[in-house]
Amino acid sequence: MTYRQIPDTLLLEERAGHALHAMVGMADRDFGYVPFFSANLMTEPPYMTHGDWDYGSSHGRMVDGMLLARHMSGETFGEDVEARYRANLLSFFKEDGLSYRQINPKGHWEPNANLIDQRAVILSLTTWLMATGDPQVKEAADKHVAALKRIAVKERDVWYYPASEYKEGGWPSANGVQLRLAPDPAAFCGRLVMPLLKYHELTGSQDALELCRYFSELIIHRSGVFNKDGSFNDALAYRSGHFHTRLGTLDAIARFGAFTGDAAMIAWVQKCYDWALTKCTAFGWTPGDLHEQAYEHETCSLVDLISTGLTLAKSGYVQYWGTVERFLRNHLTESQLLDLSWVKSGGETPENIHGWQTYDSVAERTRGSFAGYSAPNDFCCDVNEGRGHTSDLQLCCLGSGTRGLFMGWSHIVTEHQGTVSVNLLLSRGSQWLDVSSYLPHEGKVVLEVNRDIAHLQVRIPEWAGFTKIRFTRELEGAATEGSGSEPSRWLNRHFLQLGPARAGERITVTFPLSMRRTIETAMNQTFEAQWRGDDVVDLTPRGTKHPLYSGRQVFDRAPMREGQYRRPEKEWVW
Q1: Which domain, by its residues, includes 22?
Q2: pTM of the predicted protein model
Q3: pLDDT tens for residues 106-119?
Q4: Cα dihedral sign for 102, 107, 110, 114?
């Protein structure tokens, strides 16, 4: 590989490599390579613990995340662990086609097919099939989708699951079916639409498409999960308005609306999405729910917020490109555990508990993970409100965080009907062009064209205006200049039209940076954020355990380094 000088700025594919390290490190090699679910980093020494999500959910998240991370980064590290995760995942299936939790060493539960787990299972099988085309995986996925359809309770216009757990003998309560109970339809049904739709797109599965239709109808018209104004139903029966499952459901239904061309469905999602944004900070912190977990941000929720914003942006709501970029640049990447200096491992180390808890090299093994519960200004959530401190890492957030990196990375550059669009001003390579972003140090983006492009456009942040935008085009020793003040240069408010581009051309776009301060509210707590462009470079008051946003360095000129962008032979669309 030939290296060159590139800006030393955020590179999502490198972050994916760090996440891969954590996905390998959290495997419990003494317990069949079942990954640990959570970690407490505030104790001395820190420890990792198994949990009731270890099976279909955790393995599904890890298989999906590792495949996406490898596609982004090209890393081969930990393939032996990934093979064990894949084998374990397939072993959890029973003859009925569902994935079952196993008996926990501490005897906390009996085997059951948890409906939340099934979403991670079909998600991972879909990515696995996309990556390999393995017929064994397709056979398992077809059987799984057929089972999800078979066990659904079918009303005239909606389908649902009447309990959180299905057993080999059927639903735990026939009375629950007769009463048409559907506890947390968002968690059990709504979120399933996203992987089921992609599975249909990949294979043509009609069972998957049918589930998407009836689950979407359930959520929008019958479930009561969302109120008429788009707000989340915060009743206890609806998990107090749990953000991850609600936002994951919005992501799913936005995709289904875009797939079916249902403008009313997309508009419904936007209404709910805009309400959700009022409960989040501009840099991407989200509440856990509206009551007991309100102060606990899950990386999972932010990734759902990112994914929904991307679908809305592609559907014509172009203002959300900027929203997504702020989330990627700030709380998603700031929530990734790369600095371990604050994790203390001194003192006498207790003995490990086989199949349950370990103290072995926890800090090093979890490097690259994403925060399970974070405060707006701290990796650890240790507030007086809500539940106080619970845990710092959750495996679901590691899998989701990796998927969030992929969703951002795969939408930096897109192509549609001959138009190549640079949507997010982050660095990456592609078959069409390479993007080098000098943000947040300089308002500068360099595009190096790899093949002829019929029409090229680049999104300019809303804070950059248009009168002072300049661009230079260089090709074969000749250079031309242009500016954003030309009215014909703009389309869809934010996109600078550059017209045809030729292979070998170098286009440099510059614009003034916005320096501003905002007051951010997170569940009745206020913070002052200092922004440089779309990056928060300081946040006060500062955290006390592992402060976020307090160590970001910015310079007048972007630092450079030796590097190279990855250009995959085929772009994955998720």
Answers
A1: 16-411
A2: 0.97
A3: 766 678 999 999 99
A4: negative
